[in-house]
Amino acid sequence: MGQDLVFWLSLTGSIVPASFAAVAHLAPGLRDLSSVFLDSLGDEAPSVIADLPAVQALSLQGGSYTETGLQQLRRLPKLRHLHIEREDLTPSMFAFAAAMPALTRLTGLDEFGGDGPIPPAEVEQVRAMLPPRISTN
């Protein structure tokens, strides 16, 4: 019963892969997972997050996850807003977003006024592969 009362969680500081898996225990009611700084985490982080079926908003910052890790987020049936802010992203890493039925916002791509994680031309490539229902602003 107590787990159903968790609606929002912000993770910051030194998160290690072994302890990050504990987030999955909050699955039944967790709707907003914001400010997740994944500096020391790779593909295990998106995989654990994908086990949180109620998540509607997710913000990932940093990390070393790959395209395979991001693909795991397709398992979030209620995800409506996804914010990803990290260097070294490529347009192909966002192909999974088009297959997410609830997703309506994908932000962070052009963070910092066009000098962000993805060059402007590549941001346009991502926008071109997304259905019109997904806003990138």
Structure notes:
The chain starts with 7 loop residues before the first strand and ends in an 8-residue tail after the last helix. It has a single domain, classed as Alpha-Beta Horseshoe (Leucine-rich repeat, LRR (right-handed beta-alpha superhelix)), CATH 3.80.10.10. It has 4 helices and 5 strands, in the order E-H-E-H-E-H-E-E-H. Helices cover 18% and strands 16% of the residues. The chain is globular and about 40 Å long.
The coarse overall form would be: globular
Order of neighbouring strands in the sheet with most strands: 1-2-3-4-5
Major beta sheet summary: 5 strands, parallel
Poorly predicted regions: none
Structural class designation: alpha/beta
Compute the gyration radius: what is it?
14 Å
Distance N to C terminus: 37 Å
Count of helical regions: 4
**Could you spell the SSE succession in H and E letters?**
EHEHEHEEH
Name the CATH superfamily assignment. Answer: Ribonuclease Inhibitor
Strand content: 15-25%
